[in-house]
Design goal:
The chain is α/β, with parallel strands linked by helices. It has one domain: Amidase signature (AS) enzymes (Alpha-Beta Complex), CATH 3.90.1300. Helix content is 39%, strand content 14%. The protein has 17 helices and 13 strands. The chain has an 11-stranded mixed sheet, sandwiched between helices. Strands 4-5 form a two-stranded antiparallel ribbon. Strand 4 and strand 5 form a beta hairpin. Helix 8 runs antiparallel to helix 16 and helix 10 crosses helix 13.
């Protein structure tokens, strides 16, 4: 395309360090790209361009580009707190109050320390609750490959922005697949790290025992760069693990020699799109050619992951959403009849249907008489799923599978049918239950020219092997080099 915004992080870093381009030029190129194409996809919900250019100027003046992220412009999912930047979780509950955080999330603080430049916020499902970025108060984000299709969710704004070259990378969150699914739908790389590898401090919670923070990028190498920068123990988040952060880029050997990779039979269910199935079989051939041994394995409790997830997740949602009552946080109303009427109207006006649905399901599951029947049983299933992964990783180094059973679906396809939407997560929930790392990397296209994703999974704290496999696969194929044709369609 020729635009600087189309560069990867690694490519841009080389040019910045060699003084071939400036951080201001790179940031301006991304701003221009957003202004030119975002109307078509609706990814960016808040533009912080003046501040971004100021930061770029400071970085250019310092002349310091020692870190790969110095001078690199990015966009942030609208649940990450940034000091002085409106953060709404794409919900009228906070949008109406024009909430502006007085502090930075640990993740954005770590990126600032490396010299990365935040340009603004991108769209998400309301409070990250959805699988298609259709529940946002700002409207749906459209897929850059086909604007009649969803970009995925809840990090659909992040994935669409990266795919459309509006930024060099974006931050996302993954609770039940919300990084991996939109990454697959939009043809970019996205990783859900081990639970506790990255800090959740300053990121608005949906389900606290499931939420993870990760990047969406143009390449696996870029993913490794960003993940290393944002990982590590955080005293402000007691769930982060006291584990050394590996040098992820150094783990990218370009091959899979000596690795044994499992192919779980349970991820090839009835009704799977044939193009999806064939893309995974073809991916196996590529990995074999790179030195890996592919073996069939079984994960017997896989089918219970999604039902368990949709008990545990709403239960935690009901707890986390309780703070948004119009008194402590959120939308307020005038002249209520009494306190109950105040709560009722505040939440009726502030929350969308999906958030209300999950609050009600979760409250029911946690209520007296139902806690043991639903929530406690779901926790037992979660333990069984964790054991499936622990057992299989005694025999293989990693696993591969589809990300989703189909490519991106049409906008509105699941309107009025939340169960159908939840079933889109069927291959994404087991990793969540086990707290393991999993990554999506482009692995093909459908006949309709929609991207497909290969999911690479590793053991807990095993991001290095996941990145190594995905990087080797990416370098052996050209799927990730293709770009959506937004220029021809909208210029």
């Amino acid at each position: 395309m020729g635009s600087l915004s189309a560069l990867s992080i690694a490519q841009a870093h080389k040019k910045l360090k060699a003084k071939e381009i400036s951080a201001q030029e790179l940031t301006q190129a991304c701003i221009d790209r957003i202004e030119n194409v975002d109307e078509a996809i609706n990814a960016v919900v808040y533009k912080n361009f003046d501040k971004a250019l100021e930061e770029a100027k400071k970085i250019d003046s310092s002349g310091m580009f020692d870190h790969a992220l110095s001078g690199i412009p990015y966009l942030t999912k609208d649940v990450f707190c940034e000091e002085g930047v409106p953060t709404t979780a794409c919900s009228n509950m906070l949008r109406d109050k024009n909430y502006v955080p007085p502090f930075d999330s640990t993740t954005t603080k770590r990126l600032k320390a490396k010299g990365a430049i935040s340009m603004g916020k991108v769209n998400t499902d309301e409070f990250t609750q959805g699988g298609s970025t259709e529940t946002s108060c700002y409207g749906v984000t459209k897929n850059p490959w086909n604007t009649e299709k969803v970009a995925g969710g809840s990090s659909g704004g992040s994935a669409a922005a990266v795919a459309a070259d509006e930024c060099l990378f974006a931050l996302g969150t993954d609770t039940g697949g919300s990084i991996r699914q939109p990454a697959a739908f939009c043809g970019v790389s996205g990783i859900r790290p081990t639970y506790g590898r990255t800090s959740r401090f300053g990121v608005m919670s949906m389900a606290s025992s499931l939420d993870t923070i990760g990047p969406l990028c143009k390449t696996v190498e870029d993913t490794a760069i960003v993940l290393e920068a944002i990982s590590g123990i955080d005293t402000l988040d007691g769930t982060t693990g006291n584990k050394d952060v590996p040098h992820y880029v150094a783990a990218l050997t370009g091959d899979t020699k000596g690795l044994k990779i499992g192919l779980p039979k349970e991820y090839f269910s009835d009704g799977m799109n044939e193009e999806v199935r064939q893309s995974i079989m073809d991916s196996c051939d590529v990995l074999r050619s790179l030195g890996a041994e592919i073996v069939d394995v079984s994960m017997p409790h896989t089918e219970y992951a999604t039902p368990a997830y949709y008990v545990i997740c709403p239960s935690e949602v009901s707890s986390n959403m309780a703070r948004y009552d119009g008194i402590r946080y959120g939308h307020t109303i005038e002249k209520p009849n009494d306190l109950i009427d105040y709560y009722h109207k505040t939440r009726t006006e502030g929350f969308g249907d999906e958030v209300k649905r999950r609050i009600m399901i979760g409250t029911y599951a946690l209520s007296a008489g139902y806690y043991d029947a639903y929530y406690r049983q779901a926790l037992k299933v979660r333990t069984l799923i964790q054991k499936d992964f622990e057992d299989v990783y005694k025999t293989v180094d990693a696993l591969i599978a589809p990300v989703t059973p189909t490519a991106a679906f049409s906008i509105g396809a699941h309107e009025g049918d939340p169960v159908a939407m939840y079933l889109e997560d069927i291959f994404l929930d087991p990793q969540v239950m086990a707290g393991i790392p999993a990554l999506s990397v482009p692995c093909g296209f459908t006949k309709e020219n929609l991207p497909l994703g290969l999911q690479v999974m590793g053991p807990q704290w095993g991001e290095s092997v996941v990145l190594r496999i995905a990087d080797a696969y990416e370098k052996a194929t050209d799927w990730g080099e293709r770009k959506p044709n937004l220029y021809e369609r909208h210029f």
